[in-house]
Amino acid sequence: MELSAAQQIQLFRSSRALLESLRKGKSAHARDAAWNAFSSELLGGGVPDLAARGAVAALRARLARVEKEGTPPLRQLHQVEREIVSTEAWGLLLDSVRLGLIDGRNTDDILEQTAQRYACPVQRSGLEQALARNWNRMLSSETPSGLLPS
User: Fold this and answer.
1) Region class of 77: left (phi > 0), else alpha (psi between -120 and 50), else beta
2) What is the C-alpha separation between 135 and 124, in angstroms, rounded?
3) pTM of the model
4) 141 by DSSP, 3-state: which?
5) Do the beta carbons of residue 121 and residue 89 sit within 8 Å?
6) Structure letter (DSSP) for residue 2
7) DSSP string, 8-32
8) Are 123 and 89 in contact, with CB atoms under 8 Å apart?
9) Is residue 41 a contact partner of residue 7, using CB atoms and an 8 Å limit?
C-alpha cells in the first residue's frame, strides 16, 4: 500500500500542526490532545488506519531520536539557492527545518529535486509537495516494520 500524493500532503500538514502544538503545549494534557488531533486529521484526510498508526509510531520514534541527538544546524544558503524558490516557499522551507520536518542537511537535495521538477522560482505548493514526499520517506525509514508505506 502506497500513500497517494494527497495523503502525503495530508501527512505533512498534520505533522506540521502537531509539531507546532507540541512546541507550544507543555502540559501532558496538551501534548495528548495534540497527538489525538494528529491521528484524527490523518484519518479524516483519507490516510488509511494502518498508515495513520504507523505515522504516529514513526513520528514518536523520530521525535525521541531528535531529542536525544539534537537537530543539525541549517547552513546559510547561497543567494542563487534562494532564487530557486519563491519567498513564500522559502518561508515554508525554513519553517520545516525549524520544526524538524526536514534535516538541514537535506535542503540541498530538496532544492535540487524541486528545481528539476518545477519552473523557478518554485511556488509554495510545489515545494510543499516535495517536502511531503521527503517527509513520507523519512517517516517510512523510522518504521522498520513497514507500518508506514513508502
Assistant:
1) beta
2) 16
3) 0.84
4) helix
5) yes
6) -
7) HHHHHHHHHHHHHHHHH--SHHHHH
8) yes
9) no
The span from the CA of 44 to the CA of 64, in Å, is 26
Per-residue pLDDT tens over the stretch 38-78: 999 999 989 999 889 989 988 888 888 777 877 666 667 67
Q: Write out residues in the chain with pLDDT < 50, as ranges.
A: 146, 150
116/7 Cα distance (integer angstroms): 23
- The C-alpha cell 497517494 sits at 4
The pLDDT value recorded for residue 74 is 65
Q: Which three cell numbers stand for residue 41?
A: 486529521
The C-alpha cell 509537495 sits at 129
- For residue 62, how many other CB atoms are within 10 A of its CB? 19
